[in-house]
From TrEMBL:
Residues 91-369 form the Membrane insertase YidC N-terminal domain. The chain crosses the membrane at residues 6-26, 377-399, 444-464, 505-524, 544-569. It is a multi-pass membrane protein. Required for the insertion and/or proper folding and/or complex formation of integral membrane proteins into the membrane. Involved in integration of membrane proteins that insert both dependently and independently of the Sec translocase complex, as well as at least some lipoproteins. Aids folding of multispanning membrane proteins. It comes from Marinicauda pacifica. Belongs to the OXA1/ALB3/YidC family. Type 1 subfamily. Interacts with the Sec translocase complex via SecD. Specifically interacts with transmembrane segments of nascent integral membrane proteins during membrane integration. GO terms for cellular component: plasma membrane. This is Membrane protein insertase YidC.
């Protein structure tokens, strides 16, 4: 009854965890997304901007250091369709093999960009939209401008400054465009060029035609209005502002930035941006100038704007002199090869850190490179995962072999250890001393089995991280999977698509019901991996371990298919590896015993005693007695010590035996030998009989059947 109560309690706790995860984590995220998509909020006011519409940002913050203030409000306070927002301003078309979009002449903003190499969804040929203009849902853009210092005129090139196009019609890798803007004796000329991938180069020259020296500081920023619609908010993934200043990488997630509101850094060189799981928008100065950088959150509630910016130290332009300055804007995918190439070509320090390598980056990066190479060789990301895991298993085989050899020695002395525990149950100190003596005699190190496993833990997490962040998993095919970065599309509850309905759309429990073929396969391999070893002696532990594969199947079902493939394949190879190691050490795996027992029962044959589990350490007296009784009944009377047992039929069904073998043995002993009178202990001389109250009692001529409980 107690075991059933514990099992019911474990089931209730597991269900509570599942529903709690749904209500407390998944549902609030979904509600926040829906609120942002449905809301039509007013844009920020001129008071929040700190300057009227069209006015440039100020050059200094309250501390006196150069700073970038907020952008002035757009022409309307209501969200409009993206196409309508694009039609409000004059634009220059962008056309490259990788990009399509336009440059907004108001502020020379990059606020319209589509990534032609990536489809938005598996079923749609529409490209991924990275940048969108202010006023549209999900506004996201990059700006490079100028801020004034000593002697600078008003109306410097800012977020809403309208530039004049002076050269070029369409921006392509072979044809740059030029812009011009004049104010207060200063002439700004900008040449914008783009390569065949995702890097824009903005070369500015500023000529001072006035009579006084002017101080100017160039800035760059990336700004996103609201949270991204595809925000995953997963604990091992970074999504939000990122940057490098003075060779130091730093980042913040959106949720943490909402709390902190402002994070500042200063140093030389670097870059600043905002990263999604697969995409990146970033700005960077040329070279290693002194910069002040910041992550900043503006607005409140549903009108939040997340900003990552930098501003260079102010430079003075004497009358008649010209200042040249170059900046870069990146808008594209987080492709490791491309980011590394830009890092070297443009000397953008640690630009490849835009990819979230994780805390085990020293392993994740080589795994990432190997996985990318295997994908190119094998032509499939799923096969590349499997090949990489096979290679790691072969590499780690010696460590696993050593770990199991140590655990095999520990298993061999388990009965002796249990005997010590029972003998010195009330004296823990003596118990520990006897254990240490046992380890010395048997030459066993109790932690030797764990040490070889420790290096494999970071390897496991690093490979898991690699598969999770890999861009190659997006929209990659494998078997029936069309997108390995999404969950398994099949579900058990509609017979994997045979029934015409989708239970995953049900409220609250829908995501829990989305259990596909891959999660079920993962759960089966997890169970098989547990079954390779004898079950825990404690009944409650056995039930908990038996329930874990079901729990993990439900928890892992919403994960990306690439992760489930990795986990399932890793479990399968672990089972094979453990089987080989156990066989090499002369141990029969428990899973093999279970398979043989199942085959024997299906064929209607009795299960041989050697296939039964003899590990009863820690079991209750009733369980121990039941195991011993089953062994005696299966082995036949000859093993019970009875004479003439050779004539017994060992394969006779249990119900046809008239009496238990132990009963027959006692009767034969009592009939063949005369009853002896217990000897009276001598009063003088000789050895005295050991005092045992139980031994003084006369034994009953008949014994209870061993099958009965005491």
């Amino acid at each position: 009854m107690g075991d059933n109560r514990n099992m019911i309690l474990a089931v209730v706790i597991a269900i509570a965890i599942i529903f709690g995860y749904q209500f407390l984590i998944l549902q609030p995220i979904q509600e926040r997304r829906e609120a942002q998509e449905a809301a039509q909020v007013e844009r920020e006011t001129g008071a929040d901007a700190g300057s009227p519409s069209g006015e440039a940002p100020s050059a200094t913050s309250a501390s006196g250091a150069p700073s970038v203030n907020s952008i002035a409000p757009g022409p309307t306070g209501v969200m409009v369709p993206r196409d309508e927002a694009l039609s409000r301003t004059q634009r220059i078309e962008i056309r490259t093999p990788a990009l399509h979009g336009s440059i907004n002449l108001a502020g020379a903003r990059l606020d319209d960009l589509e990534l032609l190499r990536y489809d938005a969804t598996v079923d749609s040929p529409e490209p991924v939209t990275l940048f969108s203009p202010e006023g549209a849902e999900g506004a996201y853009y990059a700006i490079s401008g100028w801020s004034g210092a000593g002697g600078a005129p008003e109306n410097l090139p800012g977020p809403n400054t309208v530039w004049t196009q002076t050269g070029g019609d369409i921006l392509t890798p072979d044809s740059p465009v030029t812009l011009e803007y004049r104010t207060g004796g200063l002439v700004f000329e900008r040449t914008i060029s783009v390569d065949g991938d995702y890097m824009f180069t903005l070369e500015d020259s500023v000529t001072n035609e006035g009579g006084d020296a002017v101080g100017l500081a160039r800035y760059g920023l990336v700004r996103r209005h609201g949270l991204p619609g595809d925000l995953q908010n997963f604990f091992i993934l970074h999504e939000g502002p990122v940057g490098v200043v003075d060779a130091r990488f730093f980042d913040r997630k959106y949720g943490k930035m909402e709390d902190e509101r402002l994070l500042q850094r200063s140093g030389t060189g670097g870059w600043m941006g905002i990263a999604d799981k697969y995409w990146l928008a970033a700005v960077a100065p040329e070279g290693d100038p002194q910069v002040n950088a910041e992550f900043r959150v503006r607005g409140e509630d549903n009108n939040l704007r997340f900003e990552s910016n930098y501003i260079r130290s102010a430079e003075t332009i004497a009358p008649g002199q010209t200042l040249s300055s170059t900046a870069f804007v990146y808008g594209g995918s987080k492709d490791s090869g491309i980011l590394t190439r830009y890092q070297d070509e443009y000397s953008i320090e640690r630009f490849d850190m835009a990819i979230d390598w994780g805390m085990f980056w020293f392993m994740t990066r080589p795994f990432f490179f190997i996985l990318d190479q295997l994908t190119d060789i094998l032509g499939n990301f799923g096969l590349a995962i499997m090949a990489l895991v096979v290679g790691l298993k072969i590499l780690l085989f010696p460590l696993n072999n050593k770990a199991f050899a140590s655990m095999a020695k520990m298993r061999a002395v388990t009965p002796k250890m249990q005997e010590i525990r029972e003998r010195f149950a009330s004296d823990k100190q003596r118990q520990q001393q006897e254990m240490m003596e046992l380890y010395k005699r048997e030459k066993i190190n109790p932690v030797a089995g764990c040490i070889p496993i420790l290096p494999q833990i970071p390897i496991f997490f690093a490979l898991y991280k690699t598969v999770f962040i890999s861009l190659d998993a997006r929209h990659a095919n494998f078997l029936y999977i069309r997108d390995m970065s999404s969950p398994d599309p099949t579900t058990l509850w509609n017979l994997f698509g045979l029934l015409p309905y989708d239970p995953s759309g049900l409220p609250v429990i829908g995501s829990t019901l989305a259990i596909g073929i891959l999660p079920i396969a993962m759960g089966l391999t997890m169970w098989a991996q547990q079954a390779m070893n004898p079950p825990p002696p404690d009944p409650m532990q056995r039930k908990i371990f038996a329930f874990l594969p079901i729990v993990f199947t439900i928890i892992m079902a919403p994960f990306a298919a690439a992760l489930i493939i990795y986990w399932t394949w890793n479990n399968f190879l672990t089972i094979l590896q453990q089987y080989v190691i156990m066989r090499r050490h002369g141990t029969e795996p428990e899973l093999e015993k279970q398979a043989k027992r199942a085959v024997a029962r299906l064929r209607g044959k009795p299960v041989s005693p050697e296939l039964k589990s003899h590990d009863t350490v820690g079991s209750t007296p009733e369980e121990k007695a039941a195991v011993v009784t089953d062994q005696v009944l299966e082995s036949g009377p000859e093993n019970a010590g009875g004479a003439g047992s050779e004539t017994k039929d060992l394969n006779r069904p249990l119900e046809s035996a008239p009496e238990s073998p132990l009963v027959g043995t006692d009767e034969k002993e009592s009939s063949d030998q005369p009853e002896e009178t217990p000897a009276t202990p001598a009063t003088t001389g000789g050895n005295r009989t050991r005092s045992n109250p139980a031994a003084k009692k006369k034994r009953s001529p008949a014994r209870k059947k061993p099958g009965g409980r005491r």
